[in-house]
Design a protein that fits this description.
With about 475 residues, this protein is of the alpha/beta class. Helices cover about 25% and strands about 15% of the residues. The protein contains 16 helices and 12 strands.
């Protein structure tokens, strides 16, 4: 195969020297010949004792590596960045403080099995527990790689039924596992069923298959995806060594089919926790027309303790990228809130100070400047235009934005009022709830005559939305 990309073809391990191209570039052959035992891996890599120990351990998170991806590893380098991501070591069996099986509380936020509805207008739809290869820091190692945990046809139908009756959902992310390892007909069935739901505007795929198995991105796959636009995809590259001519060709095929590509990477100790490595990575990505999207702090998941860095390291990396390279090459640094807090962006502080009418800012060089704000700004002037746009229902999820919009004045921890009642009952000083209702905020009972209540009516929900 030939390539017009600026990246060299991925090397092929000596063990595969006699494999003809028609097999090597056949994604089904790659899947059927994945490496997972000490004997198989030893034919390609010089295994260390900690690696052999881990591979022999019971109840180990699944190991499977495509021949293509294993060939990208320097067989003699124990610190190879690809090797560390897919070859287990004894370190992943060491527990650490705050470790959890489901650190993001995804299963807690699943209205039906395999569907995570954490944000108001979008859902995560888990369609398989299988991947082409398995990352040792996998967030979903509790189910991923385990064929007994895969989702049934009945559960898939329940996912579709939930989406059909939940009109606030406009965006569905297919993940798992990896949706691109599904049989082509099944993948198209899932996408076509989603596209048939009128209120679903965007379908996204989260996949590491283009990295683990770029030969899966065939012309047929690209043509199928093109039929169901708008389709978006995020791939997952953590280190520049994962980028090859094969990956560049796969990305080119997808982008030519109109699929916008982003990249999600995970900050991994000893792999990519370096400003210089991250800069090389994002530059190589944008050369493939892949937009760096998220850089994740490693989750508090079992087996990932040795991969974790400090959050300060991630902030340092963003400091070394913002202003030092193109803005579209700078990802958002994200801490996915343990316990189900969702994706929380973290960045250096560029606001030095504020005063009425002035904001003091600094740039990446330490240059400090003043932005003078207008004296006559009227935030209500846009109201006639805003009234023509239907508000999106966010029952119970307005958050801080709801405070800014005047829908409420407080956000209280659970049982806040009960705690501060100190066990006392209702008495004459507590009898009237109106005394704690701020005038003009939200839907206050007893507004003075003529007082406008500007807050929009809450959406009327039915069925399971309540």
């Amino acid at each position: 195969m030939t390539s017009a990309t600026p990246f060299p073809r991925g090397r092929r391990a000596k063990h595969y020297a006699d494999i003809p191209d028609e097999k090597w570039y056949d994604w089904r052959w790659q899947m059927s010949n994945r490496l997972n035992t000490v004997g198989e891996l030893a034919q390609v890599l010089d295994l260390s004792e900690p690696e052999r120990e881990a591979l022999a351990a019971k109840n180990l998170f699944r190991v499977d590596i495509t021949p293509y991806f294993a060939s990208l590893i320097d067989p003699a380098d124990p610190h190879d960045p690809i090797r560390q991501q897919v070859i287990p070591t004894a370190r992943e069996m060491v527990p650490f403080k705050s470790m959890m099986e489901d650190s993001l509380a995804e299963d807690r936020h699943s209205p039906v099995p395999g569907l995570v509805h954490r944000y108001p207008d979008r859902v995560l739809m888990l369609v398989t527990t299988q991947c082409a290869s398995y990352c040792r820091y996998c967030t979903r190692s509790r189910i991923v790689g385990d064929p007994t945990q895969t989702f049934s046809r009945k559960e898939f139908e329940a996912q579709i039924e939930y989406l059909e009756r939940t009109p606030q959902v406009r965006d569905v992310l297919l993940s798992g596992g990896d949706p691109l390892v599904l049989a082509p007909k099944l993948l198209e069935e899932i996408i076509s069923r989603l596209r048939a739901i009128p209120h679903i505007e965007i379908i996204r795929l989260g996949s590491r298959v283009p990295v683990f198995l770029p030969m899966r991105v065939t012309a047929e796959l690209a043509d199928m995806l093109q039929k169901y636009h708008p389709i978006w995809m995020n791939i997952h590259v953590n280190h520049p060594n994962e980028i090859s001519g094969e990956l560049a060709d796969a990305c080119d095929r997808l982008t030519r089919a109109g699929v916008p590509l982003g990249n999600q990477s995970v900050l991994l100790a000893g792999v990519n926790d370096s400003v210089h490595i991250q800069r090389k990575l994002v530059h190589d990505l944008v050369r493939m027309r892949v937009r760096p999207y998220y850089l994740y702090q490693c989750d508090l998941v079992e087996g990932a303790g040795h991969f974790r860095t400090t959050v300060a390291k991630g902030i340092e990396i963003i400091e070394g990228l913002r202003g030092h390279t193109s803005g579209y090459a700078v990802p958002h640094f994200i801490v996915d809130g343990p316990g189900g807090g969702g994706k929380i962006p973290v960045m250096p502080n560029y606001v030095v100070s504020q005063a009425p009418g002035k904001v003091i800012l600094r740039n990446y060089e330490g240059f400090i400047t003043t932005y003078t704000e207008p004296d006559d700004y009227n935030p209500h002037a846009v109201a006639p235009l805003e009234d023509k746009v239907l508000p999106r229902p966010e029952p119970g999820q307005e958050g801080v934005f709801g405070l800014l919009q005047g829908r409420d004045m407080f956000i209280k921890p659970a049982k806040f009022d009960d705690v501060h009642a100190r066990g006392g009952g209702t008495h004459r000083l507590k009898a009237d709830d109106k005394k704690w209702q701020p005038l003009g905020i939200g839907h206050a009972p007893g507004l003075i005559e003529g007082q406008a209540d500007d807050a929009p009516e809450p959406p009327q929900l039915t069925g399971t939305e309540k």
